[in-house]
User: Fold this.
Amino acid sequence: MALVPTGACRPAGIAENGSRVIDLRFIPHAAAVAVLALVMGAAPATAKPNLVIFLSDDHGAIDSAPYGAGDVRTPNMTRLASAGLLFEKAFVNSPACAPSRATLLTGLYPARHGAEANHAKPHAELRKLPSLLQELGYEVVAFGKVAHYRYTKDYGFDHFAHDGFHEHAAIPAAIEFMQQRTSDEPLCIFVGSNWPHVPWPMDQTIYAADQVLLPPTFVNTPETLAARARYYAAVEYMDDELGRVYDAARSKFGDDMFFLHTSDHGLQMPFGKWNLYDAGVRTAMIAVWPNFVAAGSRTDAMVQWMDILPTLVELAGGDPPRDIDGRSFAPVLRGEADSHRNEIYTTHSGDRDFNVFPMRSVRTAEWKYIRNLHPEFQFATHINRGGLRSGRRYWPSWLEAAEHDREALGVVDRYRRRPAEELFYVANDSHEQHNLAMDPRFSGKLAAMRDLLNKWLEQTKDPLAVFGNPLLHGEEPTMIE
Assistant:
Protein backbone atom coordinates (compact mmCIF):
# COMPACT_ATOMS: atom_id res chain seq x y z
CA MET A 1 0.00 0.00 0.00
CA ALA A 2 1.30 3.50 -0.83
CA LEU A 3 0.37 7.00 0.25
CA VAL A 4 0.15 9.80 -2.31
CA PRO A 5 0.55 13.37 -0.98
CA THR A 6 -1.28 16.35 -2.37
CA GLY A 7 0.16 17.37 -5.72
CA ALA A 8 1.47 13.92 -6.67
CA CYS A 9 1.25 13.24 -10.38
CA ARG A 10 0.70 9.47 -10.19
CA PRO A 11 -2.93 8.45 -10.78
CA ALA A 12 -4.76 7.46 -7.63
CA GLY A 13 -5.24 3.73 -7.30
CA ILE A 14 -1.95 2.16 -8.40
CA ALA A 15 1.59 2.81 -7.14
CA GLU A 16 4.76 2.27 -9.16
CA ASN A 17 5.28 -1.11 -7.51
CA GLY A 18 1.70 -2.16 -8.23
CA SER A 19 0.45 -1.75 -4.66
CA ARG A 20 -2.77 0.02 -3.76
CA VAL A 21 -2.63 3.83 -3.42
CA ILE A 22 -4.56 5.87 -0.87
CA ASP A 23 -4.80 9.53 -1.85
CA LEU A 24 -4.91 11.55 1.39
CA ARG A 25 -6.45 14.55 -0.34
CA PHE A 26 -9.86 12.93 -0.31
CA ILE A 27 -10.20 11.88 3.30
CA PRO A 28 -10.43 14.05 6.44
CA HIS A 29 -7.22 14.76 8.33
CA ALA A 30 -8.17 12.61 11.32
CA ALA A 31 -8.86 9.66 9.03
CA ALA A 32 -5.64 10.33 7.12
CA VAL A 33 -3.66 10.10 10.36
CA ALA A 34 -5.36 6.80 11.17
CA VAL A 35 -4.42 5.49 7.72
CA LEU A 36 -0.86 6.70 8.22
CA ALA A 37 -0.60 4.85 11.53
CA LEU A 38 -2.05 1.69 9.98
CA VAL A 39 0.36 1.73 7.05
CA MET A 40 3.51 2.74 8.90
CA GLY A 41 2.83 1.14 12.23
CA ALA A 42 2.56 3.05 15.49
CA ALA A 43 5.24 5.74 15.52
CA PRO A 44 7.21 6.04 18.72
CA ALA A 45 6.40 9.28 20.51
CA THR A 46 9.23 11.79 20.49
CA ALA A 47 9.34 13.18 24.03
CA LYS A 48 10.79 16.52 23.07
CA PRO A 49 10.90 17.15 19.31
CA ASN A 50 12.99 20.01 18.00
CA LEU A 51 10.69 22.91 17.17
CA VAL A 52 11.34 25.04 14.09
CA ILE A 53 9.00 27.98 13.43
CA PHE A 54 9.41 30.01 10.25
CA LEU A 55 7.54 33.34 10.14
CA SER A 56 6.91 35.38 7.03
CA ASP A 57 6.03 39.07 7.22
CA ASP A 58 2.95 40.72 5.67
CA HIS A 59 1.92 37.65 3.65
CA GLY A 60 -1.71 36.63 3.34
CA ALA A 61 -2.90 33.08 2.76
CA ILE A 62 -4.57 34.01 -0.51
CA ASP A 63 -1.20 34.95 -2.03
CA SER A 64 0.15 31.40 -1.85
CA ALA A 65 0.01 28.57 -4.38
CA PRO A 66 -1.17 25.85 -1.96
CA TYR A 67 -4.08 28.13 -1.01
CA GLY A 68 -5.20 28.43 -4.63
CA ALA A 69 -3.23 31.38 -6.03
CA GLY A 70 -2.40 30.49 -9.61
CA ASP A 71 -0.29 33.53 -10.48
CA VAL A 72 2.38 33.41 -7.76
CA ARG A 73 5.12 30.81 -7.41
CA THR A 74 5.62 29.40 -3.91
CA PRO A 75 7.16 25.97 -4.59
CA ASN A 76 8.50 25.53 -1.08
CA MET A 77 5.15 26.28 0.53
CA THR A 78 3.71 23.71 -1.86
CA ARG A 79 6.44 21.26 -0.85
CA LEU A 80 5.60 21.78 2.84
CA ALA A 81 1.89 21.29 2.15
CA SER A 82 2.71 18.00 0.43
CA ALA A 83 4.73 16.91 3.48
CA GLY A 84 2.37 18.05 6.22
CA LEU A 85 -0.94 19.52 7.31
CA LEU A 86 -2.33 22.73 5.79
CA PHE A 87 -4.74 24.81 7.88
CA GLU A 88 -7.42 26.29 5.64
CA LYS A 89 -8.79 28.55 8.36
CA ALA A 90 -5.86 29.93 10.36
CA PHE A 91 -6.05 33.52 11.60
CA VAL A 92 -3.92 36.03 13.41
CA ASN A 93 -5.36 38.01 16.32
CA SER A 94 -4.42 41.41 14.90
CA PRO A 95 -3.45 42.61 11.39
CA ALA A 96 -0.40 44.61 12.52
CA CYS A 97 3.10 43.36 13.30
CA ALA A 98 3.65 44.23 16.99
CA PRO A 99 0.29 43.13 18.45
CA SER A 100 0.22 40.00 16.31
CA ARG A 101 3.72 38.88 17.33
CA ALA A 102 3.11 39.75 20.97
CA THR A 103 0.07 37.48 20.88
CA LEU A 104 2.19 34.68 19.40
CA LEU A 105 4.70 34.94 22.24
CA THR A 106 2.24 35.46 25.13
CA GLY A 107 -0.85 33.48 24.09
CA LEU A 108 -3.03 36.47 25.00
CA TYR A 109 -5.41 38.78 23.16
CA PRO A 110 -3.94 42.26 22.49
CA ALA A 111 -6.23 43.89 25.05
CA ARG A 112 -4.71 41.59 27.68
CA HIS A 113 -1.02 41.66 26.69
CA GLY A 114 -0.97 45.43 26.19
CA ALA A 115 0.69 45.75 22.78
CA GLU A 116 -2.52 46.86 21.11
CA ALA A 117 -1.15 49.55 18.83
CA ASN A 118 1.62 48.78 16.38
CA HIS A 119 5.16 49.52 17.62
CA ALA A 120 4.09 48.74 21.20
CA LYS A 121 5.32 45.90 23.37
CA PRO A 122 3.52 43.68 25.89
CA HIS A 123 3.53 44.15 29.63
CA ALA A 124 6.93 43.30 31.10
CA GLU A 125 5.52 41.16 33.91
CA LEU A 126 3.83 38.67 31.55
CA ARG A 127 5.40 35.27 31.11
CA LYS A 128 6.55 34.69 27.55
CA LEU A 129 6.93 31.56 25.47
CA PRO A 130 10.74 31.23 25.78
CA SER A 131 10.60 30.81 29.57
CA LEU A 132 7.87 28.16 29.29
CA LEU A 133 9.98 26.08 26.92
CA GLN A 134 13.21 26.72 28.83
CA GLU A 135 11.52 25.26 31.89
CA LEU A 136 10.96 22.11 29.84
CA GLY A 137 14.66 21.84 28.97
CA TYR A 138 14.67 23.66 25.62
CA GLU A 139 17.17 26.11 24.24
CA VAL A 140 15.04 28.85 22.64
CA VAL A 141 16.56 31.13 20.01
CA ALA A 142 15.36 33.68 17.46
CA PHE A 143 16.81 34.94 14.20
CA GLY A 144 15.29 37.80 12.24
CA LYS A 145 11.90 39.40 12.76
CA VAL A 146 10.27 37.21 15.39
CA ALA A 147 9.16 39.79 17.93
CA HIS A 148 8.70 43.32 16.63
CA TYR A 149 12.24 44.28 15.67
CA ARG A 150 14.31 45.49 18.64
CA TYR A 151 11.74 44.27 21.17
CA THR A 152 13.19 40.76 20.82
CA LYS A 153 15.40 41.40 23.85
CA ASP A 154 12.29 41.72 26.05
CA TYR A 155 11.11 38.15 25.44
CA GLY A 156 13.86 36.14 27.16
CA PHE A 157 15.35 34.19 24.25
CA ASP A 158 18.60 32.34 25.01
CA HIS A 159 20.03 33.88 21.86
CA PHE A 160 18.74 36.23 19.21
CA ALA A 161 20.27 38.03 16.24
CA HIS A 162 19.52 40.19 13.19
CA ASP A 163 16.17 41.49 14.43
CA GLY A 164 16.39 44.90 12.73
CA PHE A 165 14.43 46.12 9.72
CA HIS A 166 15.17 43.93 6.68
CA GLU A 167 18.26 42.27 8.15
CA HIS A 168 18.44 39.48 5.60
CA ALA A 169 21.56 38.04 7.26
CA ALA A 170 19.10 36.37 9.66
CA ILE A 171 18.41 33.45 7.33
CA PRO A 172 22.00 32.28 6.71
CA ALA A 173 22.78 32.93 10.40
CA ALA A 174 19.91 30.69 11.49
CA ILE A 175 21.02 27.95 9.11
CA GLU A 176 24.61 28.19 10.33
CA PHE A 177 23.43 28.04 13.95
CA MET A 178 21.56 24.81 13.32
CA GLN A 179 24.41 23.26 11.36
CA GLN A 180 27.05 24.02 13.98
CA ARG A 181 24.99 23.31 17.09
CA THR A 182 26.30 20.44 19.25
CA SER A 183 24.10 20.74 22.36
CA ASP A 184 22.05 17.73 23.44
CA GLU A 185 19.22 19.99 24.61
CA PRO A 186 16.14 20.05 22.40
CA LEU A 187 15.97 23.24 20.35
CA CYS A 188 13.19 25.68 19.61
CA ILE A 189 14.30 28.04 16.86
CA PHE A 190 12.22 30.89 15.48
CA VAL A 191 13.31 32.20 12.08
CA GLY A 192 11.66 35.42 10.91
CA SER A 193 11.87 36.47 7.29
CA ASN A 194 11.51 40.16 6.42
CA TRP A 195 9.70 39.26 3.19
CA PRO A 196 7.30 40.17 1.73
CA HIS A 197 7.21 43.31 3.90
CA VAL A 198 7.88 46.54 2.01
CA PRO A 199 10.04 47.83 0.42
CA TRP A 200 9.43 45.31 -2.33
CA PRO A 201 12.11 44.46 -4.89
CA MET A 202 12.26 46.76 -7.90
CA ASP A 203 13.36 43.83 -10.11
CA GLN A 204 10.80 43.54 -12.92
CA THR A 205 12.31 40.33 -14.35
CA ILE A 206 10.74 38.01 -11.75
CA TYR A 207 7.12 38.94 -12.50
CA ALA A 208 5.85 41.21 -15.24
CA ALA A 209 2.78 43.33 -14.62
CA ASP A 210 0.76 41.31 -17.13
CA GLN A 211 1.52 38.09 -15.22
CA VAL A 212 -0.35 38.97 -12.04
CA LEU A 213 -4.03 39.09 -11.12
CA LEU A 214 -5.74 41.69 -8.94
CA PRO A 215 -8.35 40.93 -6.28
CA PRO A 216 -11.81 42.36 -7.07
CA THR A 217 -11.30 44.85 -4.22
CA PHE A 218 -8.55 46.69 -6.16
CA VAL A 219 -8.65 49.40 -8.81
CA ASN A 220 -7.10 48.01 -11.98
CA THR A 221 -4.38 50.44 -13.06
CA PRO A 222 -0.94 49.83 -14.60
CA GLU A 223 0.67 51.19 -11.44
CA THR A 224 -1.27 48.72 -9.27
CA LEU A 225 -0.31 45.78 -11.46
CA ALA A 226 3.35 46.83 -11.26
CA ALA A 227 3.12 47.05 -7.46
CA ARG A 228 1.48 43.64 -7.30
CA ALA A 229 4.29 42.20 -9.43
CA ARG A 230 6.89 43.57 -7.02
CA TYR A 231 4.97 42.16 -4.07
CA TYR A 232 4.92 38.73 -5.73
CA ALA A 233 8.68 38.97 -6.21
CA ALA A 234 9.00 39.57 -2.46
CA VAL A 235 6.74 36.55 -1.80
CA GLU A 236 9.06 34.44 -3.94
CA TYR A 237 12.07 35.71 -1.97
CA MET A 238 10.32 34.58 1.23
CA ASP A 239 9.50 31.21 -0.26
CA ASP A 240 13.14 30.67 -1.19
CA GLU A 241 14.20 31.44 2.40
CA LEU A 242 11.53 29.06 3.68
CA GLY A 243 12.94 26.26 1.55
CA ARG A 244 16.50 26.87 2.69
CA VAL A 245 15.53 26.84 6.38
CA TYR A 246 13.34 23.75 5.97
CA ASP A 247 16.10 21.84 4.18
CA ALA A 248 18.64 22.80 6.83
CA ALA A 249 16.29 21.69 9.62
CA ARG A 250 15.53 18.39 7.91
CA SER A 251 19.25 17.79 7.35
CA LYS A 252 20.03 18.49 11.01
CA PHE A 253 17.06 16.91 12.80
CA GLY A 254 15.61 14.38 10.37
CA ASP A 255 12.22 13.18 11.58
CA ASP A 256 12.87 14.47 15.10
CA MET A 257 11.33 17.80 14.26
CA PHE A 258 8.10 19.78 14.28
CA PHE A 259 8.20 22.48 11.58
CA LEU A 260 5.61 25.25 11.38
CA HIS A 261 5.31 27.95 8.75
CA THR A 262 2.92 30.88 9.19
CA SER A 263 2.71 34.65 8.73
CA ASP A 264 1.85 37.58 11.01
CA HIS A 265 -0.97 38.99 8.80
CA GLY A 266 -1.88 39.90 5.23
CA LEU A 267 -0.20 42.01 2.59
CA GLN A 268 0.36 45.75 2.81
CA MET A 269 -2.11 46.76 0.13
CA PRO A 270 -5.65 48.14 0.51
CA PHE A 271 -8.07 45.98 2.53
CA GLY A 272 -5.20 43.75 3.72
CA LYS A 273 -2.87 44.74 6.53
CA TRP A 274 -4.53 47.02 9.15
CA ASN A 275 -7.95 45.54 8.23
CA LEU A 276 -10.08 42.80 9.76
CA TYR A 277 -11.13 41.40 6.41
CA ASP A 278 -9.77 37.93 5.69
CA ALA A 279 -7.16 39.48 3.39
CA GLY A 280 -5.71 41.03 6.53
CA VAL A 281 -6.18 38.36 9.19
CA ARG A 282 -6.32 34.98 7.44
CA THR A 283 -2.83 33.55 7.35
CA ALA A 284 -1.04 30.61 5.84
CA MET A 285 -0.25 27.88 8.37
CA ILE A 286 1.41 24.60 7.42
CA ALA A 287 2.72 22.05 9.94
CA VAL A 288 5.16 19.24 9.16
CA TRP A 289 5.63 16.60 11.87
CA PRO A 290 6.97 13.34 10.44
CA ASN A 291 5.20 10.17 11.64
CA PHE A 292 2.49 12.21 13.38
CA VAL A 293 0.95 14.50 10.75
CA ALA A 294 -0.35 12.86 7.59
CA ALA A 295 1.47 14.18 4.54
CA GLY A 296 -0.62 16.17 2.08
CA SER A 297 -3.56 16.61 4.45
CA ARG A 298 -5.76 19.64 5.08
CA THR A 299 -8.03 20.74 7.89
CA ASP A 300 -10.88 23.22 8.26
CA ALA A 301 -10.26 23.51 12.00
CA MET A 302 -10.25 27.20 12.91
CA VAL A 303 -7.13 28.24 14.83
CA GLN A 304 -5.50 31.54 15.82
CA TRP A 305 -1.97 32.72 16.49
CA MET A 306 -2.55 32.78 20.25
CA ASP A 307 -3.03 29.00 20.01
CA ILE A 308 0.56 28.45 18.84
CA LEU A 309 2.09 29.02 22.30
CA PRO A 310 0.09 26.34 24.14
CA THR A 311 0.50 23.99 21.18
CA LEU A 312 4.30 24.24 21.30
CA VAL A 313 4.28 23.79 25.07
CA GLU A 314 2.19 20.63 24.74
CA LEU A 315 4.39 19.23 21.97
CA ALA A 316 7.38 19.91 24.22
CA GLY A 317 5.86 17.73 26.91
CA GLY A 318 4.46 20.45 29.17
CA ASP A 319 1.06 21.56 30.38
CA PRO A 320 -0.04 24.81 28.72
CA PRO A 321 -0.75 27.68 31.12
CA ARG A 322 -4.35 27.96 32.23
CA ASP A 323 -4.41 31.74 32.46
CA ILE A 324 -3.93 32.47 28.76
CA ASP A 325 -6.42 32.87 25.91
CA GLY A 326 -4.77 30.39 23.55
CA ARG A 327 -5.74 26.72 23.37
CA SER A 328 -3.50 23.96 22.07
CA PHE A 329 -4.43 22.55 18.67
CA ALA A 330 -2.16 19.52 19.17
CA PRO A 331 -5.24 17.23 18.93
CA VAL A 332 -5.80 18.54 15.40
CA LEU A 333 -2.16 17.86 14.51
CA ARG A 334 -2.41 14.31 15.84
CA GLY A 335 -5.65 13.68 13.98
CA GLU A 336 -7.64 13.34 17.19
CA ALA A 337 -9.91 16.29 16.30
CA ASP A 338 -11.23 17.92 13.12
CA SER A 339 -12.31 21.16 14.80
CA HIS A 340 -10.84 23.61 17.28
CA ARG A 341 -12.65 26.95 17.61
CA ASN A 342 -16.23 27.92 16.80
CA GLU A 343 -15.48 31.64 16.65
CA ILE A 344 -12.45 33.72 15.74
CA TYR A 345 -12.09 37.13 17.41
CA THR A 346 -9.77 39.74 15.94
CA THR A 347 -8.82 43.22 16.99
CA HIS A 348 -7.07 46.23 15.51
CA SER A 349 -6.36 49.58 17.13
CA GLY A 350 -3.93 51.47 14.93
CA ASP A 351 -0.43 52.19 13.73
CA ARG A 352 0.72 55.59 14.99
CA ASP A 353 -0.94 58.52 13.19
CA PHE A 354 -0.79 56.70 9.86
CA ASN A 355 -3.73 54.56 10.92
CA VAL A 356 -6.05 55.51 13.77
CA PHE A 357 -9.11 53.34 13.27
CA PRO A 358 -9.99 50.86 16.05
CA MET A 359 -12.17 47.92 15.07
CA ARG A 360 -13.18 44.52 16.42
CA SER A 361 -14.63 41.43 14.72
CA VAL A 362 -15.99 37.94 15.21
CA ARG A 363 -15.90 35.28 12.51
CA THR A 364 -17.51 31.86 12.32
CA ALA A 365 -17.01 29.29 9.58
CA GLU A 366 -19.62 31.08 7.46
CA TRP A 367 -20.11 34.63 8.80
CA LYS A 368 -17.99 37.69 9.66
CA TYR A 369 -19.12 40.68 11.74
CA ILE A 370 -16.95 43.80 12.02
CA ARG A 371 -17.58 46.68 14.39
CA ASN A 372 -15.84 49.92 13.45
CA LEU A 373 -15.68 51.72 16.79
CA HIS A 374 -15.40 55.22 15.32
CA PRO A 375 -17.01 55.44 11.89
CA GLU A 376 -16.60 59.22 12.11
CA PHE A 377 -12.87 58.65 11.60
CA GLN A 378 -11.54 58.47 8.07
CA PHE A 379 -9.74 55.21 7.36
CA ALA A 380 -6.14 55.84 6.30
CA THR A 381 -2.85 53.93 6.43
CA HIS A 382 0.74 54.13 5.23
CA ILE A 383 -0.69 53.38 1.78
CA ASN A 384 -2.15 56.85 1.31
CA ARG A 385 -0.13 58.72 3.96
CA GLY A 386 3.32 57.17 3.53
CA GLY A 387 6.11 57.24 1.00
CA LEU A 388 6.94 55.41 -2.20
CA ARG A 389 7.71 52.13 -0.48
CA SER A 390 4.18 51.98 0.94
CA GLY A 391 1.57 52.99 -1.62
CA ARG A 392 2.44 56.27 -3.24
CA ARG A 393 3.54 54.51 -6.42
CA TYR A 394 0.00 53.33 -7.15
CA TRP A 395 -2.50 55.04 -4.79
CA PRO A 396 -2.59 58.29 -6.85
CA SER A 397 -3.68 56.22 -9.86
CA TRP A 398 -6.70 55.06 -7.82
CA LEU A 399 -7.65 58.65 -7.06
CA GLU A 400 -7.25 59.62 -10.70
CA ALA A 401 -9.39 56.68 -11.84
CA ALA A 402 -12.05 57.60 -9.27
CA GLU A 403 -12.50 60.97 -10.96
CA HIS A 404 -14.07 59.41 -14.05
CA ASP A 405 -14.86 55.79 -13.17
CA ARG A 406 -17.83 55.03 -10.89
CA GLU A 407 -16.52 51.60 -9.91
CA ALA A 408 -13.12 53.01 -8.94
CA LEU A 409 -14.85 55.75 -6.96
CA GLY A 410 -16.76 53.07 -5.06
CA VAL A 411 -13.52 51.27 -4.15
CA VAL A 412 -11.82 54.46 -2.96
CA ASP A 413 -14.87 55.50 -0.97
CA ARG A 414 -15.09 52.05 0.63
CA TYR A 415 -11.43 52.33 1.62
CA ARG A 416 -11.92 55.71 3.30
CA ARG A 417 -15.41 55.38 4.79
CA ARG A 418 -16.31 52.45 6.99
CA PRO A 419 -19.82 51.98 8.43
CA ALA A 420 -20.40 51.29 12.10
CA GLU A 421 -21.16 47.64 11.37
CA GLU A 422 -20.28 45.20 8.60
CA LEU A 423 -21.73 41.73 8.10
CA PHE A 424 -20.51 39.29 5.46
CA TYR A 425 -21.50 35.79 4.47
CA VAL A 426 -17.91 34.73 3.95
CA ALA A 427 -18.94 31.24 2.86
CA ASN A 428 -19.62 32.65 -0.63
CA ASP A 429 -18.21 36.19 -0.35
CA SER A 430 -14.54 35.50 0.27
CA HIS A 431 -13.45 39.06 -0.57
CA GLU A 432 -16.12 40.53 1.73
CA GLN A 433 -17.61 42.90 -0.83
CA HIS A 434 -21.29 42.66 0.10
CA ASN A 435 -22.12 44.20 3.46
CA LEU A 436 -25.39 42.70 4.69
CA ALA A 437 -25.62 44.66 7.93
CA MET A 438 -28.39 46.93 6.64
CA ASP A 439 -30.34 44.14 4.92
CA PRO A 440 -33.46 43.38 7.03
CA ARG A 441 -33.38 39.75 5.88
CA PHE A 442 -30.26 39.23 8.02
CA SER A 443 -31.26 41.23 11.09
CA GLY A 444 -31.36 38.07 13.20
CA LYS A 445 -27.88 37.02 12.17
CA LEU A 446 -26.62 40.56 12.74
CA ALA A 447 -28.05 40.56 16.28
CA ALA A 448 -26.53 37.14 17.03
CA MET A 449 -23.07 38.13 15.80
CA ARG A 450 -23.29 41.45 17.63
CA ASP A 451 -24.13 39.60 20.83
CA LEU A 452 -21.15 37.27 20.41
CA LEU A 453 -18.81 40.22 20.06
CA ASN A 454 -20.32 42.06 23.01
CA LYS A 455 -19.82 39.07 25.29
CA TRP A 456 -16.22 38.67 24.15
CA LEU A 457 -15.44 42.36 24.71
CA GLU A 458 -16.81 42.08 28.23
CA GLN A 459 -14.87 38.88 28.88
CA THR A 460 -11.53 40.37 27.74
CA LYS A 461 -12.20 43.74 29.40
CA ASP A 462 -11.20 45.47 26.19
CA PRO A 463 -10.79 49.22 26.93
CA LEU A 464 -11.62 50.10 23.28
CA ALA A 465 -8.83 52.67 23.39
CA VAL A 466 -7.93 55.13 20.64
CA PHE A 467 -4.21 55.51 19.98
CA GLY A 468 -3.02 58.54 18.06
CA ASN A 469 -4.65 61.48 16.31
CA PRO A 470 -7.52 60.43 14.05
CA LEU A 471 -8.19 61.82 10.59
CA LEU A 472 -11.80 62.96 10.23
CA HIS A 473 -13.97 62.82 7.15
CA GLY A 474 -13.48 65.87 4.99
CA GLU A 475 -9.86 66.30 6.08
CA GLU A 476 -7.25 65.81 3.41
CA PRO A 477 -4.71 63.11 4.35
CA THR A 478 -1.28 64.63 4.87
CA MET A 479 1.99 62.77 4.36
CA ILE A 480 3.69 61.43 7.48
CA GLU A 481 7.37 60.69 7.64
Observations:
- DSSP finds 15 helices and 17 strands in the chain.
- The radius of gyration is 22 Å.
- The CA atoms of residues 80 and 425 lie 31 Å apart.
